[in-house]
Design brief:
The structure is a homodimer of 195-residue chains. The first copy, chain A, has 195 residues and is mainly alpha-helical. Chain A has two domains: 47 residues, Homeodomain-like (Arc Repressor Mutant, subunit A); 129 residues, Tetracycline Repressor, domain 2 (Orthogonal Bundle), CATH 1.10.357.10. Chain A is 75% helix and 0% strand. Chain A is built from eleven helices and no strands. The longest helix of chain A is centred in the middle third of the chain and has 24 residues. At the A-B interface, helix 6, helix 8, helix 9 and helix 10 of A face helix 6, helix 8, helix 9 and helix 10 of B.
Chain lengths: 195, 195
């Protein structure tokens, strides 16, 4: 009781992910997560507000990290380049060593509509914060929104390929590839305009 | 009782939008909507499953319209151009004459988190359907996802400017502008790559 539990957050998180995978998110209780982690329910609630927060507690830190990257980017860097660099840094610093956990987490979310909705809200909030950070750099209103939304789109597509791929290409490289592909697609001359 | 109510759906929808605007979505009941429309609750439930569906019943028709446009596009048309044309057609055929209603609806959604989540789910489903339609045209997996997500991003940004603008530029023109802007942003040469 009350004794120090080394890496309690990590143990709870691993226990939760195991149970969500084994019996589904809905059927797992906080009591079961705590038991599997060898901790008490009370300790669980010291780290997470509820069993859903085990999946989403990192979103705020990710958003802060990305906004800090955009704020710190060289002033001459364009909006797409700024967003791509920020997402690439997050991929290297946060995600790269957590590929298995990232895939597990995504599988849990994909199986539950309420979790999908929460994930979409988090991504929309992330896009809004990145657009706001671009505006602070003097980027126009529409360009800021578009660059941020395009970044999140590239992030989602690259994430999916990274977690389900063979692991030979890094997540950051996938994000850069996606952005370059989007540039080729969207920047390609419009055949109708040439007629 | 049982007599024919001309334009019952439209009357219920207008009554609901008025009430959502006046007293908020949460505080409005189906009974109040029916009363304002001069119809019965029973008639309401003939058209809508609940008060939320008044805001979202058109989403399925929009998705079908857009997918049909992509399916019918000339085979030589590129993915971004195909998506832009489909969204532009929907803007002209469905949205343009409903600017006031579209703004009212958006105001109601922006004021309620649960409605925002539902709107995001609908847009994510729309992006997935459009990506799937592009894949049927033989467009690659990643390019299909990126083009569809970029289209939805341009649609969202253009929608916001259209409903809050002065009405002189059409929604379809705004979508084309947004896509062109995204092309300039994303297709711009990367300064880092030139060094």
């Amino acid at each position: 009781m009350g004794r120090w539990a080394p890496d309690a957050r990590g143990r709870l998180q691993r226990a939760a992910m195991e149970l969500y995978g084994e019996r589904g998110f809905e059927s797992t209780t906080v009591a079961e997560i705590a038991e599997r982690a060898g901790l008490t329910e009370r300790t669980f609630f010291r780290y997470f507000a509820d069993k859903r927060e085990v999946l989403f507690w990192g979103a705020e830190a990710l958003q802060e990290f990305l906004v800090a990257q955009v704020d710190a980017a060289p002033p001459e860097r364009g909006p797409i380049e700024t967003i791509t660099a920020a997402l690439g840094s997050a991929a290297d610093a946060i995600f790269e060593e957590m590929r298995d956990q990232s895939r597990q987490r995504q599988d849990v979310i994909d199986a539950n509509r309420e979790l999908q909705e929460r994930e979409l809200i988090k991504l929309a909030s992330l896009a809004a914060s990145l657009a706001e950070a671009l505006r602070r750099r003097g980027v126009g209103d529409i360009a800021s929104s578009l660059a941020a939304e395009a970044g999140i789109a590239a992030f989602k597509v690259a994430f999916d390929h990274w977690v389900h791929g063979d692991g030979r290409r890094t997540f950051a490289a996938g994000i850069r590839d996606s952005m370059a592909e989007l540039g080729r697609l969207a920047g390609a001359p419009n055949p109708a305009a040439r007629r």
